[in-house]
Amino acid sequence: MPYVLLAVAIGAEITATSLLKLSAGFTRLWPSVGVVVGYLLSFLLLSLTLRSVPVSVAYAIWSGAGTAVVAAIGMVVFGEPVSLVKIGGIALIIAGVVALNLGGTHAG
Fold first, then answer.
1. Is the pLDDT at 106 greater than 60, yes or no?
2. Are 47 and 9 in contact (CB under 8 A)?
3. At what angle do helices 55-76 and 29-49 cross, to 10 degrees?
4. Residue 108: how many CB atoms within 10 A of its CB?
5. What is the mean pLDDT of residues 24-50?
6. Where does 1-108 have alpha helices with state H?
7. Does residue 97 surpass a pLDDT of 90?
8. Residue 97 and residue 65 in contact, taking contact as beta carbons nearer than 8 Å
9. Integer distance in angstroms from the first to the last C-alpha of the chain?
10. InterPro entries, alphabetically (predicted)?
């Protein structure tokens, strides 16, 4: 169940960050409301996840997945330039999250 909460927290964070772009500096009401609600929900669910998942693992997954997906959304939805360097960066984020998780399972 904690990883389901974490997945929903990631989804809320991704949604809030995407809406942040659409809020135009908090000048548009509904995207701005979505930003606030999304981040509140995300942090609430992340805090609940931390009851049973180590912070190093949960935060690595939350921030890494959020960063990678938002970068991809920026390229696909918002028309940001795609480059091998960006794609490589996303791959490195994913590799870092995997490494932290593997390290977390063997730590004593």
1. no
2. no
3. 150
4. 2
5. 98
6. 2-22, 29-49, 55-76, 84-106
7. no
8. yes
9. 23
10. EmrE-like, Small_drug/metabolite_transptr, Small_multidrug_res
